[in-house]
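This section describes the prediction task in plain terms. A model, or a person checking by hand, is given the sequence of a single protein chain and must write out its three-dimensional structure as a string of tokens. No templates, partner chains or ligands are provided. The sample shown here is typical of the held-out split.
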Amino acid sequence: MIDYGEALDLQWGLARSRMAGDISDLLILLEHPPTITLGLGGSRENLLLDKGSLEKQGVAFYEVERGGDVTYHGPGQLVGYPILDLRDHGQDIHVYLRKLEEVIILSLTRFGIRSGRREGLTGVWLEDKKIASIGIHVGRWVSWHGFALNVNTDLSYFDLIVPCGIKGVKMTSMANLLGREVPIEEVENLIVTNFGIVFEAAMREVSLRDVLIA
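The expected answer:
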């Protein structure tokens, strides 16, 4: 569980290090306290409460440089921030987005959840319901920001926004679909495995301390 602002500073630093070639590709997996973020292409009209009202409810708010509109992060949601040099992964942002979706789709399949894509929209869907959101930023072909998969997420927080700026969209979670709480560590392990498969990468766990020292 990491404060969103702290994680944002961490990403900026790691992205600069990746650009300089000081570190290898990374996949950071974490959770955030209740937070709403608005992307570059987003509209404040999709934020149904002002910043002050959100703070009174214990929800932080950030405007960030990722693509996409407004979304929610919170406990029970697995957030992934890949810090990748996309020159080693096809150098195509649209292909990169589809690969992130594929990682999540494959992982959900192991739980018997059949998900997919919706034409013209980013993210992972079950017909008209959205279970994972994706928003990235790329600078000098290095990516940061990433994806958010609703595992045991309290979906009521999405009532504070128009999720992803799409009117009428309904958000769902793995727990909601399965009718039980899902061990987030199990989901994390599947995401790591499938990330390695989709991106043809040898995955190994490293401590944040070791990365920062590097």
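For orientation: The first helix runs from residue 4 to 19.
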